[in-house]
Amino acid sequence: MLVVADAGLPIPDQVRRIDLALIKGIPTFEDTVKAISSELSVQTIIIADETCSQSPHILSFLKKQFQGIEVQCISHAEFKEKISTAKAVIRTGEFTPYANVILVSGVSF
Fold it and tell me: Domains in the chain and their CATH numbers?
């Protein structure tokens, strides 16, 4: 599991953090996800239920970016618990609420 996160998602101490945030909005969540998705074989995406209600454009972007990929929705509290087992969290400069996704990957062959 690899997490792409907005600037405000709390990251557990034991999880590797890749901090790309330069200033507010740079890099964006969408640009970061696009770059990663071209290099990663994603089997499932996991988002918080709150993404659907608070930031529906993020959900639309993810569905378009990962067409045909299973989308799992869990509560934001469960999402924060789940990231403690991720390989890494990539922190972006995104300030959109709930602009976070867990990318579950496997092998493409």
Answer: 2-105 (3.40.1650.10)
DSSP-derived secondary structure letter, 81: H
- 88-91 and 42-48: which strand pairing? unpaired
**pTM: predicted TM-score of the whole model, two decimal places:** 0.94
Q: Is residue 51 within 8 Å of 59, Cβ to Cβ?
A: yes
Using alpha carbons, select from 15, 2, 30 the residue that is nearest to residue 95.
30
Task: Please spell the DSSP secondary structure of 21-69, one letter per residue.
Answer: --BTTBS-HHHHHHHHHTTS-EEEEEEEHHHHHH-HHHHHHHHHHTTT-
DSSP code of 85? G
φ and ψ at residue 43, rounded to 5 degrees: -100, -30
Instruction: State residue 70's pLDDT score.
Output: 92
> Which residues lie across from 84 on neighbouring strands?
none
Q: Express each pLDDT in 52-88 by its tens digit.
A: 999 999 999 999 999 999 999 999 999 999 999 999 9
